[in-house]
Every structure is written in structure tokens, then in C-alpha cells.
Design goal:
Length: 334
């Protein structure tokens, strides 16, 4: 059953940039919004927040630990000293004082992977998916990634978005860290404008007509990098997989090339890889994430037999544990 209310009214939107300090589009976009007063007269209040100012000043993803993995209950109720733990508690307190049930978060990110415009929906609130669907209706090349990371039983690494029921994450790429790219900056502007417009129209009971269902990509499993017994990297993402985010991956397609020239082919279930060779994910030992492409109903209340968003949020992403997922097949020079 899909929870939530189609008529949920949002009273405030907060645009967040700099959750990762070396992703520059967000901080410079919110600076532009503040300086020009872009949403000053909007029917819904629109605020901005620079999430990790210290990391932004140093052009680093984080100072002590990833802020976007620091909103777990044990951190928000604890006294841990790392900078991002303290910052997470400050941000959580801020939102708890501002009608969290009527507050929509738009968290801005960039990625080194070839993700284009990606809208990440992190829970089963209908409003979040409808907002993403409206953006996609106006920007057909945008994709929707239906993530369940903040719904998992493991609460150790909750994201900033988890502090509100309502919100979407915007990812644009490919973009190197600590760089602003004109086309992706403008794409971010357009997505934010459409999201704010949809929420504003929803508040005035003039919500635009949406399709009956929307295609989303649901993460299935993480693919780790090949490593030796000491944990050292032994291969790189294959050139024939690089930049093929959201393109069908089937068995026998090359996914890695070892430093000794051995090609490693994919032998898992067909799927759609995303965040291929994302720079930040080397720290998390994730070469790419396999997703399934599924259709989700936008109808509310649910109709008989329709597939609802909650049906696709039952389990967390899992690492690939099958030793036969990849198969060394041939000696090849790269």
C-alpha cells in the first residue's frame, strides 16, 4: 500500500547545496538564488542551505566523514566529535523547528559518472515521485532512480534527505570534482524550477496532469572492484562499460580489465548499471550499481493490480556476493 496523501500541502522548500564540499554546482547555485532573490515572491517559501561549509571551503568531499551518511539516529542523538556529526545535528535541529511534515528538501549533487540528469526518490511518499515525474514530463531525458537506502533496517548511514519525509535528490554528471560546468549548472536550474513550480501548483490545488505510471530504475546490487588477498585494486572499469550508465548490461559484456590484461566479463542477471566508475565510490568499493528498470503507478488511491512505489522499496541495496557474477574469459591487452 502506498502511504501518504495526494493532497499533502508543502509550505516550505529548502534547496541544499554542498552536502559534499567538492560538488560545486549546489553551493554556487544557492548563492545565485540568494543574491538574485529568484524565489523571493514564490507562493511557497523557498530557503537555501549550504550543508557542509567547511568542506566546501577546502574543496573536499568531507572533513572527517561523509555528511550524507551521517544522519543516523545514533549520531543525531549522540555527542560524537567529528565535524560532520556535529553539522548533522545542527541541520537536524534546524529542520525539526520548521514544520518537518510540511517541508520539502531539494538536495543538489553532481557525479563524475555519466548519469545525465538523475532524480533520486528515497522513500515511498507519493508526492516525491509525482514531483520527479513532473520534472521528467518536462525533461524527457531525465531519469528517476528509486532508492531505498534510507528505508533499510540498517540505520548506520542515513542520508541528509532522511530528515524529511518529502524531497528529491538531483544528480547531474559527468562532472569532475570541484568544477562548475555551464550546461549542467543550467540543467540543475531547470530541474529546481520545475520542482518548485509543481509543489507550488500542488499547494494551490492546480497540480498538473501526470501520466498514469512512470519508469524508474531500482538499485538491485553493488558491484565491487576486483581486489587481491591484501585488498589492493587489481582491475579498472573496462572501456566498453565506461559511460554506459542506464544502458542494458547483459552476460558476457566486458566490465573490468585487470592490470595484467585479463578481461573480466559480466555473468550476472541483466540490468542497468548506474554510477559507473564514480570517483567517490572507490572509498566504498563500488564500481557500479546494477538496477532494474520498472514501471510504477502514479495513481492515487492505488488501483487494483497496479504496482505501487512502496512495492519497490522492500529491501536495501546488497553487495554482489556470488563469486560467479564476473568471469575471467580472455587475455587481452588494453
Amino acid at each position: 500500500m502506498m502511504k501518504g496523501d495526494k493532497n499533502q500541502i508543502i509550505e516550505k522548500v529548502t534547496i541544499i547545496g554542498g552536502t559534499h564540499g567538492n560538488e560545486y554546482i549546489g553551493p554556487y547555485f544557492i548563492a545565485k538564488v540568494e543574491k538574485l532573490g529568484i524565489y523571493q515572491n514564490n507562493a511557497i517559501e523557498v530557503a537555501t542551505l549550504l550543508a557542509n561549509p567547511e568542506a566546501f571551503c577546502q574543496a573536499r568531499r568531507f572533513i572527517d566523514q561523509d555528511l550524507n551518511r551521517s544522519f543516523s539516529p545514533h549520531i543525531l542523538t549522540g555527542t560524537q566529535k567529528p565535524y560532520e556529526c556535529q553539522r548533522a545535528r545542527e541541520i537536524a535541529r534546524h529542520f525539526s523547528q520548521n514544520e518537518p511534515d510540511q517541508h520539502f528538501i531539494i538536495d543538489l549533487h553532481s557525479t563524475t559518472a555519466n548519469m545525465g540528469i538523475t532524480l533520486i526518490v528515497r522513500n515511498n511518499e507519493p508526492l516525491n515521485l509525482r514531483t520527479a515525474a513532473y520534472v521528467q514530463k518536462n525533461i524527457p531525458e531525465a531519469r528517476i532512480l528509486l532508492s531505498d537506502k534510507d528505508n533499510a533496517q540498517d540505520l548506520q548511514h542515513r542520508s541528509l534527505s532522511s530528515i524529511s519525509r518529502f524531497g528529491i535528490v538531483i544528480e547531474v554528471g559527468p562532472l569532475p570534482n570541484a568544477v562548475i560546468r555551464h550546461d549542467l549548472f543550467e540543467a540543475t536550474e531547470k530541474v529546481v524550477a520545475l520542482a518548485v513550480k509543481f509543489l507550488t501548483l500542488s499547494k494551490t490545488r492546480e497540480e498538473p496532469k501526470l501520466p498514469g505510471e512512470v519508469t524508474v530504475f531500482k538499485p538491485r546490487e553493488k558491484a565491487p572492484y576486483p581486489r587481491d588477498a591484501e585488498g589492493e585494486l587489481t582491475a579498472m572499469v573496462h572501456r566498453d562499460l565506461q559511460d554506459r550508465d542506464y544502458r542494458l548490461l547483459e552476460a558476457s559484456h566486458p566490465v573490468f580489465m585487470t592490470f595484467q590484461g585479463v578481461e573480466i566479463q559480466y555473468a550476472g542477471e541483466r540490468g542497468y548499471p548506474v554510477f559507473i566508475n564514480e570517483a567517490a565510490y572507490y572509498l566504498e568499493d563500488t564500481a557500479f550499481i546494477i538496477t532494474d528498470k520498472v514501471a510504477v503507478s502514479l495513481k492515487y488511491p492505488p488501483t487494483s493490480g497496479s504496482t505501487q512505489i512502496a512495492d519497490h522499496l522492500a529491501a536495501d541495496w546488497r553487495p554482489t556476493t556470488n563469486p560467479h557474477t564476473y568471469l575471467n574469459t580472455s587475455e587481452k591487452t588494453s
